[in-house]
Structure formats: structure tokens, C-alpha cells
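input
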Amino acid sequence: MEKGFVYVLRCSNQALYTGSTRDLQKRLCAHNAGKVRTTKNTRPVQLIYVEEFGSYSEARKRELYLKTGAGREWLKGIVERWPSG
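output
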């Protein structure tokens, strides 16, 4: 089984981007190279949070949770620990 990751990026405009992937390094490179449409115009991006899972499907479920109201509230507590910029 292939592991998966959930990650949160802080974009140059201070917006947060939450995503999931099987290959974290490759995905981060894609974000900073402008190959991801959602973050293309808000580069550079900074990785501020990551969770590793035993499978991609678990990571995807966690990503979807973090995009709910309750998930965003939980994430806000994590993000406040990271300085912006």
C-alpha cells in the first residue's frame, strides 16, 4: 500500500492551501514551479504543516475533513504557531 500525505501551504498572499498527495517532495516542487493552477499566482508557497498516512485514501479523507468548518477551526490553532512571511 502506498502512503499518503496531507499538507498545508502558506501562499505569498497569506492564503492557506490544503492538499493531499502520494509524493510530497514532487508535489511541493510542482507548486513552486507554477504547475498547480490553484497556487500558480500565489507563489512562492511555504510548507507549514504535514501529516503522513498509511494510504493515500486515508490522507484524502483527512484533507476533506480539514476543508470542513470544524477542520478549518482545528487547523487555525496549528497555523497560529507559524509566523507569516
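quick obs: The domain at 4-79 is CATH 3.40.1440.10 (GIY-YIG endonuclease).
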